[in-house]
Amino acid sequence: MAGGPLIGCSARDASLAGDLNEDPILDAAQFPGSSRVSDPYNGCDEDDGFAYAGRTYDHPGSRADLIAHYRTTAAQNGWQPDPSSSTGGPHCFTRQKGHLAIHLSLHFPDTYNIPGEPQAKPSEYSIELTASHDGSAWC
């Protein structure tokens, strides 16, 4: 996690980010043949005060196959589809761990490309976990 003050995040939130980073779903659900694009990341969203952890991969297959893989893998690991998840946006799942609702999302970084900025490749995808002790996290 990057250094600096945690504005809107507590030490408890920072600790939760570390816990999320260790969740086996982040690595176990990797699409076969995918390769990691960057180092694992985790931290706390200082504006909204929720913890996050994730991985970004490059995949050789179609998005439809990737989405089907994650739906199956998530279900096999106790994750439930989030009813607020749209089929065109992040594909979101939730799981309870004690009093925490943890959210797992699958998204495609190239949908956020901004002209003139570094561009994500269409073959890249990210999986991310978010959670908050006060329930403010979402996919």
Overview of the molecule:
The protein has 139 residues and is α+β, with helices and mostly antiparallel strands. 21% of the residues lie in helices and 29% in strands. It has helices spanning 11-21, 25-28, 63-76; strands at residues 35-36, 41-45, 50-58, 80-81, 91-97, 100-107, 124-131. Strands 1, 2, 3, 4, 5, 6 and 7 form a seven-stranded antiparallel sheet that branches. Strand 5 (91-97) and strand 6 (100-107) form a beta hairpin. The longest helix has 14 residues, at 63-76. Mean pLDDT is 83; it is low at 1-6.
Short structural summary:
With 139 residues, this protein is α+β, with helices and mostly antiparallel strands. The protein is 21% helix and 29% strand. The longest helix has 14 residues, at 63-76.
Span from first to last CA?
20 Å
Q: What's the SSE pattern?
A: HHEEEHEEEE
The overall average pLDDT, rounded, is 83
What share of residues are in beta strands?
25-35%
The helicity comes to 10-25%
Low-confidence stretches: 1-6
Largest sheet properties: 7 strands, antiparallel
Write the layout of secondary structure elements.
Elements: H1 11-21, H2 25-28, E1 35-36, E2 41-45, E3 50-58, H3 63-76, E4 80-81, E5 91-97, E6 100-107, E7 124-131
Distinctive features:
single chain, 139 residues, alpha+beta, 7-stranded antiparallel beta sheet, 3 helices, 7 strands, disordered N terminus
